[in-house]
Amino acid sequence: MNDQFYSQIFDKHQQVDAVPSNKEITTWALQVIRLLFPEQQRQDFFDPQQVKAEFLRLEQELAVIMNATKACQDCDNVLLAAEFFEQIPELYELLNTDIQAIFNGDPAACSEFEVIRTYPGFFAISFYRLAHALYRHEVPLLPRILTEWAHSKTGIDIHPAAQIGEYFHIDHGTGIVIGESCMIGNNVKLYQGVTLGALSVAKSMAYTKRHPTVEDNVIIYAGATILGGETVIGHDSIIGGNVWLTKSVEPYSTVFHKPAITVLNKTKV
After folding, report:
1. Which one, out of 29, 81, 122, 214, has a CA that is 20 to 30 A from the CA of 60?
2. How many angstroms separate the Cα of 45 from the Cα of each of 38, 51, 140?
3. Coil, strand or helix at 135
4. The model's pTM
């Protein structure tokens, strides 16, 4: 490699802003979640004022991170961080509905503690909820860093812009994909390998609704693929495993396919 190449890489390093590492950003998020849910990692506090002080510390840390990433060019990142943390009680209540949905909906769940501590579905949902709240405040980059990190840990890929209602249940979860413009109602349950995606990935569709709408009380079983921004899964429907859908279905529908499986008994010799 010649000196011109080294100079080219050097120039790129000078041009790129000093953004905090993904580890720093995800560590901040983990601290917020663990403060809300000590089942994941308990801290020793002696009174509520210490809890308040910890929230304030995390608020200040978020302001520093947002300032470093130039999250808000024309406003005060300290104020933006404070506004975000004003919504933490609402976020906490929303996450508790998800915990309840997972616990009530999974016969294998022995306790809410187990759901919070061990379930990858709750881990991915909690990072999504945090990232979505930042996204709604028009904070760039950070929401995607958080959801992609959770994706790398769980195999569950939820875009931070997706809109997801309360009592959301992800069971097993590996391989789930929820696209950017997806809209999901309340009391929805997804199994592993579900894709809520787009019919087209043309760049010209960047600002259009490309992903499905899933209404309230829908169950989507493993391996189902539902595509298209105009596709609506009506409320109280059941989508069977490995179903491929690109058109809407009415409420109270049950959608399944009939695989051709033949079982032959082997005759003993």
Report:
1. 122
2. 11, 7, 33
3. helix
4. 0.91
